[in-house]
From TrEMBL:
Originating gene: yihI
Keyword Translocase: no
Keyword match Nucleotide-binding: no
Organism for this UniProt entry: Gilliamella bombicola
NCBIfam families tied to this protein: PRK05244.1-1
Official protein name in the record: Der GTPase-activating protein YihI
């Protein structure tokens, strides 16, 4: 039986084999994407983008830059605004200003209430009180000038009683 089955297969001629191989080659040739598909697809994208505004793919400023150096006289230099000059106050005016300082008043109230001050508050208070002392010495004021008249009367009365 084996011999009969093998005999049923007929051998193909060389011409038939060549024709089949040519057909297979044609099929393989047309497999996949057509040649030049990269470029053809971009044409389709260009048509789609032409309806929309095409965007510049470059990143950065589009501001034109001159390639020729302009002379220094043509260049505009920014004008610096002068800083306002500090007004020089007379010692009397400065003393009045320090006495009317609300922040200084608040800190003095805190000191009278025995509250703890922060480092910044303490430095501010010390600097202002030192400046007040300097101004009072400069103006010639003494502590006696600011004592109440009642305290003076009591002092005089106590002195008279002692004698």
């Amino acid at each position: 039986m084996l011999k009969n089955k093998s005999k049923q297969k007929t051998k193909k001629s060389r011409q038939e084999i060549n024709e089949e191989s040519r057909e297979l080659k044609r099929k393989r040739k047309h497999k996949g994407l057509p040649s030049g598909s990269r470029f053809n697809n971009q044409d389709d994208n260009k048509n789609k983008n032409s309806t929309n505004k095409s965007k510049d793919p470059r990143i950065g400023s589009k501001k034109p830059i001159s390639l020729v150096v302009e002379s220094a006289s043509n260049a505009i230099k920014p004008v610096k605004q002068p800083k306002p000059a500090k007004t020089v106050l007379s010692p009397q005016q400065e003393l009045e200003q320090l006495e009317n300082d609300p922040k200084l008043d608040m800190l003095l109230d805190l000191v009278e209430q025995n509250a703890k001050l922060t480092k910044d508050q303490q430095t501010y208070l010390d600097s202002k009180l030192n400046r007040i002392d300097e101004l009072m010495q400069e103006l010639g004021y003494t502590d006696d000038d600011f004592e109440d008249e009642e305290e003076k009367k009591e002092d005089i009365v106590s002195l008279l009683k002692r004698n």
